[in-house]
Amino acid sequence: MKPTAEQYKKIYRAQMPKSKTGVDCLCAFTVGGMICMIGQVFLGLYSGIQGVDKDTAALLTSATLIALSALLTGFGVYDRISSFAGAGTLVPITGFANAVVSPALEFKSEGYVLGTGAKMFIIAGPVLVYGVAASVVAGLIWLLFL
Amino acid sequence: MNKRVGRSTIELASRPSILGYAAYVGKKEHMGPLGRFFENYDPDTTFGMDTWEKAESELQRRTFSLARQKAGLENDRIDISFAGDLLNQCIASGYSSRENGIPFAGLYGACSTMAESLALASAFVDAQFACVASAQTSSHFCTAERQFRFPLEYGGVRAPASQWTVTGSGCCFVGPHQDDKVSVERICFGRIRDLGVCDINNMGSAMAPAAADTLVQFFSDTGTCASDYSAVVTGDLGEVGSEILSRLCVMEGYEIPNHLDCGKMIFDPEKQKVKAGGSGCGCSASVLCGYLLPELERGRLTRILFMATGALMSPTSFQQGESIPGVAHLVVLAAPKNSRK
């Protein structure tokens, strides 16, 4: 007897290996927390510099984390950490940097214009588009109702 | 003469032989459980080239040249070449065949291409459309990743049912029957089967119904069963698809206790972190040419069913929410007469 699509769904779902949610969460929490801790250290260092206010120090911290993530992506280390850390490396700003740098490197072979330039945002692009769109909507709500 | 047996099987009365063959793999495959059988490998996954696509073409070129040397053939004696790969417009095969001057028939059967090309090459030889025909395919982890998934350095997490594309190639030269070579006895082209699996990270589930369909069709056409063969070898169903294949075959009244899967054999899932196993055209191609054919020649296997499975989706169809059509083609390979125990 050949199964129907409906019957087959039950068969293959029963065979699907499950993710180890508990272990994955623990890894993500630990590595994600460590990235935040590194950020906190930089924030502390930058805040100690004379003439740097709180906002500038926060900005410098983000820039440093982005630069570090880009560098680790270039050295081929970031994806190795991610395979262990999962969302722990994906959610912080470092994940966003990795999402931009990895296609930029990958598509260099198609040239700087149609490769790196055009494909740099294939992963991060949707986040930017809908992030900007959501902020416009939030701005309108704030302007009209608050 | 009617050479068809049942609905889909073709009997190759002249029993074409595999005159020469070679497998060539990358570093990770060489480090896997079948590593000692892969004597031809390059620890440099770029194969000395400056892009991944050129690397895959070079991989095919090297494999072709090794197999040709083994068969003792010159290019002008090869009447037709059947080749394919996973890349858009099959560029790895097209570019690797640029200089060889052999009539070229490009194929796309996704990961089923090794069985498809071998079946076509054998049919051409049996029908005397060609004296010698080549069958070749390849896949490369880095080209497949960037075409079907994410950039290499992107820090995404692989799903538990996902498979690792093999960097490898296999090439066979098929010619008239010779008693001291492995021969092709029957071939069976499969139908497209699609039972609604849409998950690109679960190819084993998408392809298993096609594998079961071709296998059951072949058994019913020929009146044989799994125990008539030393092994039933599938291409790249992996851990998940292999389990499902067994269940589907049992539902249709066939047990396959001697089932092997190239995707499960080529990597150690735990040590090499490949989740559900290997995949790609190069998976079944390199296991066939690196392990199965030598085992047949040594007489450790007598007669096997080699069935490679392919998932015929593209990134476009996947993004449009289409389910994944699967296909599986089967080739019956028999050990040389003098080696059979």
Description:
The complex is a heterodimer of chains A (146) and B (341). Chain A has 146 residues and is mainly alpha-helical. Chain A has one domain. Chain A is built from 8 helices and no strands. Chain A is extended and about 80 Å long. The mean pLDDT of chain A is 93. Chain B folds into 2 domains: 172 residues, Stage V sporulation protein AD (Peroxisomal Thiolase, Chain A, domain 1), CATH 3.40.47; 157 residues, Peroxisomal Thiolase, Chain A, domain 1 (3-Layer(aba) Sandwich), CATH 3.40.47.40. The mean pLDDT of chain B is 95. In chain B, helix 6 runs parallel beside helix 7. Chain B has 10 helices and 14 strands. Chain B has 341 residues and is α/β, with parallel strands linked by helices. The chains are: A mainly alpha (146), B alpha/beta (341). Chains A and B meet through helix 1, helix 4, helix 5 and helix 6 of A and helix 6 and helix 7 of B.
Low-confidence parts of chain A, pLDDT < 50 over ≥5 residues? none
Counted up, domains of chain B total: 2
Query: Mean of the pLDDT scores of chain A?
Result: 93
CATH architecture field of the largest domain in chain B:
3-Layer(aba) Sandwich
Which SSEs are present, and which pair or pack?
The complex is a heterodimer of chains A (146) and B (341).
Chain A: H1 5-15, H2 21-48, H3 54-74, H4 78-85, H5 87-90, H6 93-106, H7 112-119, H8 125-145
Helix pairs in contact in A: 2-3, 3-6, 6-7
Chain B: E1 4-5, E2 9-11, E3 17-25, H1 27-30, H2 52-71, E4 80-85, H3 91-96, E5 104-107, H4 113-126, E6 133-139, H5 141-148, E7 164-165, E8 168-175, E9 183-188, H6 203-222, E10 231-234, H7 238-251, E11 259-261, H8 262-265, E12 278-279, H9 281-298, E13 303-311, H10 315-319, E14 326-334
Parallel strand pairs in B: 4-5, 4-6, 7-12, 10-11, 10-13
Antiparallel strand pairs in B: 1-2, 2-9, 3-8, 6-8, 9-14, 13-14
Helix pairs in contact in B: 6-7
